Amino acid sequence: MRNFNFNNFTDIRFGTDQIEAHLHDVLASYGQNVLLVYGGGSIKKNGLYERVMHQLPDLNVFELGGIAPNPKVTSIEAGQKMTKAHNIDVILSIGGGSVIDASKLIASAHYYDGKPWDLVLNTKIRQTLKQLPVVDILTLAATGSEMNKNSVISNPETHQKLGTSGPNSPVVSFLDPTLTYSVSKWQTAAGSIDILSHLTEQYFDQAENTDVQDGMMEGLMRTVIKWAPVALNEPDNYDARANLMWSSTMALNGLVRTGKENGWTVHGIEHELSAYYDVTHGMGLGVLTPRWMRFALNAQTEAKFARYGRNVWHLVGSDVAVAQAAIQATYDWIKALQAPTTLTALGIESNENFAVMAQSAVTLKHLDKVAYVPMTSDDVVALYQASMTTVGFE
Amino acid sequence: MRNFNFNNFTDIRFGTDQIEAHLHDVLASYGQNVLLVYGGGSIKKNGLYERVMHQLPDLNVFELGGIAPNPKVTSIEAGQKMTKAHNIDVILSIGGGSVIDASKLIASAHYYDGKPWDLVLNTKIRQTLKQLPVVDILTLAATGSEMNKNSVISNPETHQKLGTSGPNSPVVSFLDPTLTYSVSKWQTAAGSIDILSHLTEQYFDQAENTDVQDGMMEGLMRTVIKWAPVALNEPDNYDARANLMWSSTMALNGLVRTGKENGWTVHGIEHELSAYYDVTHGMGLGVLTPRWMRFALNAQTEAKFARYGRNVWHLVGSDVAVAQAAIQATYDWIKALQAPTTLTALGIESNENFAVMAQSAVTLKHLDKVAYVPMTSDDVVALYQASMTTVGFE
């Protein structure tokens, strides 16, 4: 286990009716001027907007809607202008990871006079800035953004989709599982795959003897595997939505990465897909992950894949048999969620961009140096190529 | 899963050399006057005292040593006098759970003019008080006190040993596994049993569908079960000490209790042992826990005990067979740690106090109402009695 620092100052209000009990007082404790950030407007259709505004009659609420999945830097620029123009005291972010990611960067950009993209490219600048408090109401279980400092922001002009980390996580996060009852099967599946991927990215790691973290992750993986199909079949199943929501937060609030090396692989490779083709992030991960596992399974990693098979999938047998069966089980679980199983099914019909995407992933994420199993750009091209068909899995 | 609020503001510095890197600046950020609280003086023999003081040449350090295991309210009174007399800005607590427990209550008593025992008896008073910042250096993995708001304090005059919760957990906790290399086999075993007990107390619970929490706890239990024997045999094994230390913190920092009912049973019954006989807390738990499991196993709880057997002990078979085997495995693990397996072995030779102890446990902890399996005082007497011999386990 490696040395680490850990803290997480986000205050979680989990369950039903927390909005009515606490939202007003939480926001008012920071001031009168609120920037409400949200996405495509579903909150106005499903009643959440009314429910929230009903709590805030005495606050000055300014609105920034239209935050897109894979949020664009142009939205951050718009938010930056609004926070400065209206002397915003606190951001109320209602949505999934994209909306909260955007809100956290807007919270930093409020204290910066240049272009927000500077803060994405240069973390050092961002770390020196103050950050507006962000209060969020989560409506999609997936990214863990509600309890971490991270954002992923896209710049369509440069074909870049990059991570950035600010000084603070949200100050208070409202996690009401009933708000995810209306999440579509497609988004429920994508979110669940994203959660599993966050866990496998941290679980398969060069750091040894991290049983605390690996054991907690095995429990979280079993939870997602169990409850995602239930949520698909019974969208209003409270326990399914609650277990997905809380496991999503636990997977990426920093706890399970403590003492680990943290060289992620599949997310970097997937981010290129989203940047070039704007595919749903979780669905890209779902196609790539089983193929990446096949690539990563070797004599050195066999024992860890076997542990994954035994403790997560309850498989029995020799190390090599359990390891291989666990990879197949991962594929089968993703397929059973009615998720696309090939890049072709995601609408990517040609390999024309694979070489430049692979080179970008390797360069940005240092996949040839710090990954669990290092990858050259040729390896990544081969991974994209293998993801075009179901050969080997069907 | 039930509604819950969760936050934890403790900043963790885990690993080697964190004291040299950060201790001075952390303390100085709160002020110049430091109250150093410690236990029996082992830190002066093993070099830790010198190592710490070497970092603090410019701070005014006042010392309160002699905090006993099962810390006494008289120590809190002494600390209260010192913090007031010397205008203490921050408490530096070096030790295990007893020392940190005492420090947190002293931190509250600084802002109170009455007797500290008032604050134990009346949580409402304590919650309204400010609390001095507590910085700790943990030297024993067991109680989780380094990342929670709780203290357990004994009052020898009244034969009471009671829990109390303050407004804040320690602000910064230094967790250096090498500081536990010198912990004796006895204390290592007792601490490990305490960790396992914290997990079983929260795991066996009436709340249903808490897979996030139960899954994380299963991983933590496997971790303790794996590494405690290693630490006993190889006291300087870093990974053994690190996994015990971090699992200890995770078991009791509030995370795994989220969404659960939290009616603890065995701790309440053990606290009476410690109050009457001053036995080592973990060793009392080790004797009582397998007998409590036997008591609690019934048609309603069988499925949960079977889950415990499968996911923690990797047992296979029918629910009832796995459940019974898991209880035996728990006993065998405790015995293999060279811990006493009967109350007799702990020096308790007569049942003369069992009735009054049982009544006290039931009354204080409402064991007849909120426990996983409710217990009358007769049930508790029978549990104490069954703990006098190894009948049924050997």
TrEMBL record, chains A, B:
The alphabetical list of record keywords is:
Oxidoreductase
- Give residue ranges for domain Alcohol dehydrogenase iron-type/glycerol dehydrogenase GldA: 11-177
The record places domain Fe-containing alcohol dehydrogenase-like C-terminal at 188-388
Q: What is this protein called?
A: Iron-containing alcohol dehydrogenase
Cross-referenced Pfam families: ADH_Fe_C (PF25137), Fe-ADH (PF00465)
What phylogenetic lineage does the species belong to?
Bacteria, Bacillati, Bacillota, Bacilli, Lactobacillales
Report the InterPro entries cross-referenced here.
ADH_Fe/GldA, ADH_Fe_C, ADH_Fe_CS, BDH-like
Q: Which SUPFAM superfamilies match?
A: Dehydroquinate synthase-like
Q: Which CDD domains match?
A: BDH
